[in-house]
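Methods — Computational structure assignment.
A single polypeptide chain was analysed. Its primary sequence is given first, followed by the predicted tertiary structure written as C-alpha cells.
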Amino acid sequence: MTVSTYRTVLATALGTSALMWAMPAQAQAQTPQDDSPDGYVGNQADDRDTDGEIIVTARRRDEALQDTPVAITAINTQTLDNRGTTTIGDIQGLSPNLLITNQNSGAAAANLSIRGLTYADVEKSAEPTVGVVIDGVFIGTNTGQFLDFFDIEQVEVLRGPQGTLFGRNTIGGVINIRRTRPTGRFGIKAEASYGQYGTFATRAVVNTPMVGDLVSAKAFYFHTQSDGYYTDYFTGDRRGGSNNENYGLAIKVGDGGPFEGLLTLEQQEQTFDVVNAPITQTGEVFCGFMPANECNRNTTTDLYTVFVEDFESTYRAPAATLEMNLDLGGVAVTSITSYRESEENQGQDFDGSSADLYKARRIQNYDQFSQELRLAGNFTDNFDFVVGGFYFNSNYDLLQYTSVFGFQPGVDPSVTDANPQTVIGSVESYAVFGDFNYSLSDTIRVSFGGRYTRDQKSLSNSFAQTGLVGQGEATFEKFTPKLGIDWRPNDDLMVYASYSQGFRSGGFSPRATTAATASRPYQPEVVDSFELGTKLSFGRTQFNFAGFYSKYNDLQANTTVPGGPTGNQTITDNVASATIWGLEADFTSRVTSNFTINGALGYLNNQVDGFVVGNVSPVNGNIIPFDYSNNELIYNPKITGSIGATYDQPTSFGSMVGNVTFRYIDPYDQQISLGPLTGDLANGPVIVNGNDPRVRSDAQTLLDASVRTNFEIGGARAYATVFVRNLLDDRGPNAALTVAGLFSFSSGREPRIFGASLGFDF
C-alpha cells in the first residue's frame, strides 16, 4: 500500500469512526442546558427549548441552522478562541470540500476553493469564484481576503452557488463573516500572543457607551508580526516576514428600536517580504543560468530555503461601511453602503534564484463602492420574501516594472525598466434579486428566486515606450434562477433538494501584449448545480449530509497564443467545460455536557471536457493544439476531512478547555500545466496526460491542539492558552507555478508552530 493510499484510507476511516462516535448520543437522556456549548458548532446539537440554537443568515434571514435548506457550516467565536485560530486560513478543513491557502503574490491574498471552484490569481480584472462577505460587504478581489480572526462573532461557510443573495460571481460559495457589534456597555477584550519564528500579536477591542442607550462605540486594534519561516541560504536569516496593523472604530445608533445604524471605519496596513523557492528543473531555460544547487530541488523540505533578494512590499487598505436597518412592522429594510480601497507596492523575485533572471515591481491601486438595499418580510403567514437591488463599481490601475535577465541583484526593476506596462480597468455592475419561501403545508416548503446581473467592464493595456497595446469594453448580463423544496416531517429531520445557477462575469486579459488580444473579451462562466441533502437531529447530535452535481460551462483559464514582444503571450479565454460532483457530511455531538466531538468529510470528482488550446510545440516552437482534457481541475482534492474533540473541565478557579483537531487533505493540483506529453509533438494535437507533478500538493495530515485555562482576575474573565498548529510538521507547497518552459517557483505552507497567548475580557 502506498503512502498516498494509506492516508486516503486513514482519512476515510476517521470520518467513519467519527460517525460511530456520534451514534451513542442518540440514546442518552440529556438535561437541557442554559448555556451555549463551548466549541465547534458546525451543526451544533442543542435542545430545542434552549437559547443555544445556532442562528445563521445564509438566506439573508435569521434562521436556525437545521431549518435552513442550504449546505452550510457555522463556526462561532468560542471555537475560534479554543483552537488558537488567528486567520481565515485556520478554518480550512472544518467544512467539507473547503480549501484556503495564502496567495504569496498579493497582500493579504487568499486562494479559496469550495466544491472545486476557485480563482487562484491576483489580477484584479477578474473576481474570485468564492466570495468573502464581511458584515454584509462583498470583497471584490482575493487581495484582502486573508483576514485576522480575533473580533469575530460567527463564520458561515455556504457551499454551492450563492449569487442570488450574496454579492457577485459567487459560483463556488461564500464565506460569510460577522464581526461583533458595539455592546453599549463598557468593556475591554485584549490579548497578546507569541509563537515560533518571531510571531507576535497584540489585539484589543474596547466597547463604550456614548449617549445613554442610544449611541455606543467599539474601537479595535490588531497588530501581528513575524520574522517568517523561510531561511536565507546565504545569510541564515529568517525570510518571508511581515508586519500587519489593523485598526478602526464602529459607532452604533439605536438600541432595540425600529431604527439601527452602524458606521464602521477601518484601515489595514502591511509591510511584508515576498519570497519564492525555485523548483526549476533541467530542461527549463532558466536552469542553464542558475547555480547548480538552485536547480532540481524538491517540493517539500527544500521549499523552506530561499535564494532571492530582499524586496520590501507595502499594502494599505482603508474602508468605510454604513449599515442601516429599519423595522416597518411587516417589512424590514436594510441598506449597506461600503467603500474600500487599497494601495499596493510589491516587489517579487519570481524565478526564485540568486541569478536575477526575472523579477517585477507591481504598483497597484484599487477601489470599490457598493450599495445594497433589500426588503424582507411576509406576504402571508406562509409566504415570506427577500427582495432587493445591488450596485457595485470598482476601478484599478497597475504599473508593472519588469526585469528579465537583468543579472543585477539588489537593483529594483523600476530603475532599469524604461518600458513598464500600465493596465487600467473598471467594472460597473447592477443587479436585482428576489428569494421567496412558500409553505405548501406544515411540512413542505418551496423556495424560488433569482438574480439579474448586468456587468460593464473596460480595460486598457499599454507600455511606456510602445504606447497603447489595446483596449476593450464589453457588457455581460445574465439571469440566474434558484429553485428548492424541503420536507420537514418533524423537528428532527429535514430533506431538501435544490437547483441553482451561478454566473461569473467575463472580462479582458491583463497580460495580453497585442491590440487584438487585449481588446477581445472572454465570456462568462456558468455553473448549473443540483443538490440533495438531509439534516438530522437526535438527542444532542446533529448530522448533515449533501450530494451535489455541478456542470461547469465556458471555464475561464490562461492560455498561450502567438504575439507580443517575446513571440508568445498569455491571455484568458473560455477553454472547456467540466463536470464536478461530490458528497459532503458533517456532524457535531455533545456526548456529555463537557465533551463535544465534531467531524467533516468531503469527496470530489471532476472531469474536464474539450480543453483544447494553443501552446508552444516542444519540437519547433510553433503554436499548435494541446489537449488538456486529461488534466485535473486545480484545487480539487478528492477527500477532505477533519475530526475534532473539545473537553471543558470545570475547576475551582474557572475551567480548562482542551481541543484537538485532525485535518486531512488529499493531493491536489495548483495549476493547469504540462505533464507527460503524447501525440503529434510537431503539428498537434498534443495530448497532455496530467499536470506537472511539481504543482501538485502532497497529501496533508495536519494535527492542531490547544489547552485554554479560564479564570477570573478582579472580576474580569481572563484566559491563558498554549497551542500548536501542524504538530506533525507536515511540509509541502502552499502555491506553485510553472512558466511556459522557462522556470518554475513555489512557496511552502506553514510548518509546525508552537505558541501561547494571554488575554482578558470584561
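Note: Confidence is low (pLDDT under 50) at residues 1-51.
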